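#onboarding

Welcome to the new folks! Below is a worked example of what a typical request in this channel looks like: someone posts a single protein sequence, and someone else replies with the predicted structure as tokens. Don't worry about understanding the tokens yet, we'll cover that in week two.

Example request:
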Amino acid sequence: MRPSFSPLEEFFIASYRLQHQRGGRNTDVRGLCYLVSVAALAALGLYKDDVTWILIGLAIAGIRLGQNMIASAKYNPVIASIISKYDSAVISEAKPVQSPLDTIQS
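Example response:
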């Protein structure tokens, strides 16, 4: 029995399934681009002895961190709901498991 999901939950499931089929590298590359650009700006600031470039790099890193925190706060409850629905469906369909201690004692 498949649990019923909201449209947003269906979107998340389809998105993760598609990302897994494509290899899941898109988010890794995007995160790496931010990291490389911030490191390059910091290196440029150190090389030129100009704090402005370092501050720009820190601003970019701060904006990206803020975006990640907002997305996490917004979408973590959706992911938790999907997991709890799947867990309840699996538990309701599972056969009761006999404990190994029960078999030893009888």
